[in-house]
Structures
1.
Amino acid sequence: MSQAPKTLHIKTFGCQMNVYDSDRMSGLLEVQGYRLEKDIRNADVVLINTCSIRDKSEHKVLSLLGELRPLKQKNPKKVFGITGCVGQRMGRTLLQRVPHLDLVMGPDAIDRVGQLVGSVLNEGKRVLDVGFDTDRKRTYSQPSVIPRAKPSEFLTIMKGCDHFCTYCIVPFTRGREKSRPIAEVIQDVEHLVEKGTKEVTFLGQNINTYGKGTPETLAQLIEAADRVAGLERIRYVTSHPRDLGDDLIAQFGSVSKLCPALHLPFQSGSDSVLKGMSRLYTQQQYLEKIEKLKRACPEIAISTDVIVGFPGETDADFKETLKVLAQVEFSLVFMFKYSPRPGTRAFAMGDEVPESVKDERLHQAQVLVHQILDRQNKNLIGTKTHVLIEALDKKAKHFSGRNPQGKIVHVFNAGSACIGKTIEVEITEANGSNLRGYYVGALRAERNQPFVSATSFS
Ligand code: SAH
Ligand code: SF4
Ligand code: F3S
């Protein structure tokens, strides 16, 4: 009798790149015969794909590992692996500290996951693989692994970051910048589209410098993707204000499939804090980029990241951050309290801002952003927008997707046939975090029917 297939559960923390890496690992393992298992308790192999960006992110992983220990005691054959950035950063220490861990691997080992899990299962070994690519080439290749495709998909086009912002762990966990060739990326886009994808988001930690050290550029890749038949929308993250060149800015006004949305982290409004962070731009230079973007594409939505409480940040510095938040009116803001990361330059700076001050600043920034978003979203009531429907939320009984600006919209009267389609939606309700509306096509079809009012929401 043939053996039952091994079951696999992957838990993902961190950024979109980790989401993509998890899909890739499950694709690679599924090809080898593994079957996905939703319940972590029943899976033969459990992989936890981790994030190191803040201290809290690492704590979450370590406490989860503690919680999972009884499962290993009950079934010693169960395989536990740590993948991703915590694996890369802690490596052997993690294997030493956590006896029930069988495998620790970094992001560069993803394509070897089958072989690594196999060594644990078949040879009973504890396995460590945290090497970066040792060659100094600026390109790398990643064979296509597309087990299934959703209407909107992430696609990693490069790895690493050469910036070394002083607070950031990413250059240490993901290594130096290397890009995949345009031809290979476009092939993946075509495969995704064949399987039903309509929107692709290209991923890179410092994506504007895609193609560094090669003759290829991000602008060229966007143009090539724009020509892929059947693809409707293109997005990319994450841009760096210094590296976002005029060619890329101009494309927001000229490339029809490129969505009018850009994530452009500014981190701080204070020039002295920006200098301490080694961000390589000033507040004025950042605001000039925003102006240029709006000139190229007046309907563009800009989202951003902010760090409060960087070492040495004074009240006056923080006020500059609030000033930028008020002036730019971002479409979305991710706000973080500075978290010292061992090995980074900022870690050694000292001059820590007290936790209570960080909390207070975070709160102030959140209140301001919420007010702005509430006003911005309420202004959209009565307008129409196009939403690519991604999924049905069975519990909340609505469909959800994003409009071109990247805002999430909940749609009430769409049918399952809308999943994967772009439909016109009239916004009927809004608050600081949410947009709700009705499918205009159906409204027309049902115009003799009484209008179903949306339930109120907080
Ligand atoms: N490559 C992207 C994303 C980096 S991580 C970029 O350059 O923007 C995502 C966000 O986490 C960063 O933009 C920053 O706001 C935040 N972040 C990074 N390191 C941090 C740290 N040590 N403490 C708090 N927030 C941090
Ligand atoms: Fe980190 Fe800066 Fe690189 Fe972004 S650009 S990944 S913040 S080092
Ligand atoms: Fe986290 Fe690594 Fe992404 S540290 S944010 S998972 S690159």
2.
Amino acid sequence: MPCKYRTGRVLGSGTYAVVREMIHITTGEHYAGKIISKRLMDDQHLLTIPSEINILKRLSRKHENILTLVDYFETPNNVYLITELCTGGELFEHILCRKPAFTEHDAALVMRQIVEGVNFLHMHGIVHRDLKAENCLFKTPAADSALVIADFGMSGIIGAADSPGGLENNRTLTTHCGTPGYMAPEMVLKMGYGKPVDMWAIGVVAYFVLCGHTPFERDNPRAEAHAVVSCDYAFEPEDQWRHISPAAQHFIAALLIYSPDKRMTAKQALDHPWLQGRTRMIMPPVSPSLPHVDAPA
Ligand code: ADP
């Protein structure tokens, strides 16, 4: 079958995939094409391709903060996922460039969209497992552009859409994956985990969006892992955080909690005063509920 698309400029790349602009030859519509190289993947990673397609198919066009899958096809060497084209860039670049400046109010609007998207995923029994600022894309370059969650290559399915999703589901998944710096303690410690890993990552993204660096950055991976499992972070440098509301700091503190069962759920996060625009509230203290843990090997 002749290819329906002409390939354009490179938009991004990962370990096994390159993402390029794709132009539909008949309609002239522009899309993004994630071209996944089957030859570069081992058997375990090959299994993630049908899962990514299934999850995108299941969720596409159902929520405005989830990337839309338009088409997919396979050639002997590659799998192509054709999705909506996001022209506004990654949240990551946006924060690092800060052009125009990102206010706390902007940050709350962005975080609300991420939490809305994750709440939708969790309601459908899906854990993203690789939430980070690089995987949140602005649909357009407009200042008030909507934001979508992308890259479901590591996502896992925990239960059927209508599963009750009790606390036992917080331990169902075991595959060790994710991005260091965003990984929750239970993932770093290779324990069973579930939806709360996404909520931890949201805490890290919120911290990053507000100050431009992540909370557990250390000189080496071992020190970083130790900081994560000890919930060892601070709202520093102080001159930067002094201007950030207690509600924003409370939002982060209620997510960077050691115990997955005590972390805010997506639904609770949506009701948090910071995402509701109530930044002047006096917030109660949050305990990171730390057990004694040894540094991972
Ligand atoms: P990988 O799983 O290999 O990391 P991603 O799906 O995360 O691949 O895509 C890699 C990068 O490509 C993203 O971080 C982003 O910069 C860019 N990208 C991905 N999808 C789109 C899209 N729909 N529109 C614009 N850019 C995209």
